[in-house]
Structure formats: C-alpha cells, structure tokens
Design brief:
With about 280 residues, this protein is α/β, with parallel strands linked by helices. It starts with 11 loop residues before the first helix and ends in a 19-residue tail after the last helix.
C-alpha cells in the first residue's frame, strides 16, 4: 500500500524544504484507522478543528475544544509512521495573549506527541506565532478565509477580491513567514492572489480553495472520499462516493436482519463438540 518503502518521518523542517519542489500532499485526519490508511500517501496530516463539524455535527469549527483536538490528535498519532502530523489550535486557545498561545501549544504537543501546531491569523497573530516558534514548537500558519472568524465576519467569504484585500493578505502571509512559521495554509482566496503570495514567500503555501500554484494542497478527507452529508464546498473534488457505499451497506444489512438472513451459521458460535448445521 505504501508508496515509500522506507518509513522515514517527515518533519516540519522537511516540509519547509519542499518550497518550490514536488507538491506537498496534505489531508485532514481525525481517527486512527483513517490515519493508518492515509499515512503512506500523505506528506502532512492535519488534525483540523473541522473535526467539530465533520465528526461531531457542530455548525462551525467554533465547537472544537482543546480536549477534542487532543483526543483526536492522539488517535491520529497512533496511526502514523511517516506523515508530518499537525494539530489545529482551537478558537479561544491562543487569541488572548502570546503567553496563552504558548501554553496551549505546549499542551497540545505534550499530550499528543504531534510534530507541529496550526493557528489562524496574519499580522494580528504574528506575535503568538513568534512566541511559540521561539519556544521550539513548529507552527503552520493559516490566512485567507479563516473558519474560526465566521461569526465575526458574518459567514464564509472568499478573500482577495479587492486590491485592498489583496494587499492585506500579502501582509498577513509575510507576517506569518517573518514570525517563523514553516508553512502557511491559504484558504478561500481568489486564484491570482494565492498564486502571487506563493511566489513571494520563501515558505511553502498549502492551498484549499486557492491556487494550483500553491506548494501543496489540502482537503478534508470526508469531502475527498464523498462522506460529507451536508453541502460539499465548490473547491472539493470527490475521489470516491462513500455516501452511497455506506447507505447501500446499511440498507442491505437492515434487509438481512429483518429477513433473518443475518447472522448465518458461519457467524455464530456453537458449544464445544457440536458443529454448525
């Protein structure tokens, strides 16, 4: 199954070194079995705060908690051998101060054993990124559409559609870079702006709803395999249709149970010395 015969751990520094090279393959992962399946194929697995929506049914990522992120981070780390694992810092865990951000980052690293943390924000969060990096913890940035700001901004709004907004995005990206982040996610940003930012930065950009010119791409795994049961975002390509597969399996199972076709003789246990009829 593995594309790489040797399980060499991919580090944040190795991701940084991929700038301008082979595209970086990134996916979200929230559970042990999914991590096991994705690990041979992905360079980076993000335990995203999207888990609050995807697995826990919240309307936004604001439902994610530190406990939730740590629990899922631990599960993913148990399933990984080679991919670089990054855990999202949930809303409310870093915005108050650089001290709060560092304490939260340390807790995530200590309790999950992950390789890096990710937080949203640009110029406004540069001092938080710098404090965490200074303490020796790798940080992935996140600019453009920031899901943790959905309530403040009144919805999910594509970024970079005006000259002023484009300048602000570039300033955010450069601030994240200067603060010491090893890479930065660019989300929900018009293509030419995301491509221009990618050319201007010395660290890799990871696109989602951005540009093919980014140094890497990321998708939510449930979106990518067709498990999303609500609205599928425009920027998603579904590589499988597991919605139909799961629904079909459940339908056939229900029919077999109701018709007493399951369990069959091969699925039950008999007393010692008595064989199944």
């Amino acid at each position: 199954m593995a594309e790489h015969p040797a399980e060499v751990q991919i580090t944040p520094e190795a991701i940084r070194g991929r700038k301008g090279g082979a595209p970086i393959v990134c996916l979200t992962a929230y559970t042990y079995p999914i991590a096991r399946l994705l690990d041979p194929h992905a360079d980076l697995l993000l335990v995203g705060d999207s888990v609050a929506m995807v697995l826990h049914g919240h309307a936004t990522t604001l439902g994610a908690t530190m406990e939730m992120m740590i629990m899922h981070g631990q599960a993913v780390m148990r399933g990984c051998r080679r991919a670089c694992v990054v855990v999202d810092m949930p809303a409310g865990s870093y915005e108050h101060s650089a001290g709060q951000a560092l304490a939260s980052a340390r807790r995530i690293m200590d309790e999950t054993g992950c390789h890096a943390v990710k937080l949203e924000g640009g110029t406004d969060m540069a001092d938080r990124i710098a404090a965490i990096v200074y303490a020796g913890i790798p940080v992935m940035g996140h600019i453009g559409l920031q899901p943790q700001s959905v309530e403040k901004e009144g919805g999910y709004k594509i970024k970079g559609r005006t000259q002023e907004d484009s300048k602000r995005l570039l300033a955010d990206a450069q601030a994240v870079e200067k603060a010491g982040a090893f890479s930065v996610v660019i989300e929900g940003t018009v293509e030419p702006v995301a491509a221009d930012i990618t050319r201007r930065l010395s660290i890799p950009t990871i696109g989602i709803g951005a540009s093919a010119q980014c140094d890497g791409q990321i998708l939510v795994i449930d979106d990518a395999v067709g498990l999303t049961v609500d609205r599928v975002p425009k920027f998603v390509r579904e590589y499988a249709d597991l919605r139909s597969a799961v629904a079909d399996a459940a339908q056939r199972y229900a029919a077999d149970v109701r018709a007493r076709r399951f369990p069959g003789p091969e699925h039950v246990f008999q007393p010692k010395g008595k064989s199944a009829p």
